[in-house]
Specification:
Elements: H1 2-19, E1 35-42, E2 45-54, E3 59-66, H2 76-94, E4 101-103, E5 109-111, E6 114-121
Antiparallel strand pairs: 1-2, 2-3, 3-6, 4-6, 5-6
Amino acid sequence: MRLGFIAAIALLTMLGACSRPKPVIVNSPYGSGTTHSEPVFYNGKHYKLSFKYIAVKNLYDVSIIGKGGRKLGSKPGDAKIVGEVVSSAIRHFTCATGQKAHILPGSQRNLNGRWHMFARCG
């Protein structure tokens, strides 16, 4: 009887351990949920980059606009250039040495001349 009781306690303990949420590993020098802005100079042009780290998804919510609020184009070629600017800047400001930043496919969108996207180091 006593052995069955101990086995039941052990089983409940193991089941409880499995159902606990795993802690989020923060892979960013920035705290989760705080927006940061940085000036960026890329290929002779100035930009304003804003990003927020989202720890539960281990990614950055990024937006970029031209200096002084200058609107950026919305064509596919513009998306490519903006993606390169963001990848380079996120790698510089947030990624560990040797890591690259990647734009999540399908996340780029232009809203009124400001580009928004998600990026991740890796």
